[in-house]
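Bug #77: duplicate submission created two jobs. Keeping one. Sequence:
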Amino acid sequence: MTRRHFIKSVGYMGFMLITGSVSFASLYGSRGLTEGAKWLNLYSLNTGESLKTVFWLDGVYIDGALQEINHILRDYRSGEVAPIDVKLLDLLYLITKLTGKDRIVVISGYRSPSTNAYLHRVKKGVAKDSYHTLGKAVDIRIEGVSLDTLRDLAVSLRAGGVGYYPRSGFVHLDTGAFRYW
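Kept job's structure:
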């Protein structure tokens, strides 16, 4: 499958989801959303930690797994842990299903307000009121998937904000209103 065909197919799936012509259940398989499992395989670039866990099983989010995910996506500068939006986890899971890739490399997850304020002062492009401080954003890359393809896939899903940072080597995803930059 060419990159153009892949992007076109994913864009069509996103359109079908938005218009209600197809459900998330059909993307996840015949058992749908009330049965089965959703899992994530995360690698934190800054801490070297890995986590592979089932976070949703038979229609229920698993508290222990969510706590493990919150920990690996913590503010690695301060060590502060905060709840991560389950919509963001669902989006990451969907992206792994659509790309066929298992492992997500995380550059940044949650940021404490003090860490974010510091980064806003010293780095260009860090939002003053970042979704990272709400546990609703993550900066990622996926080995074997170009950043262009990852960006195009995320934009086609229209599930929130998508930032493209090729010089820094990541794509930003958040669960805010749909927009891209």
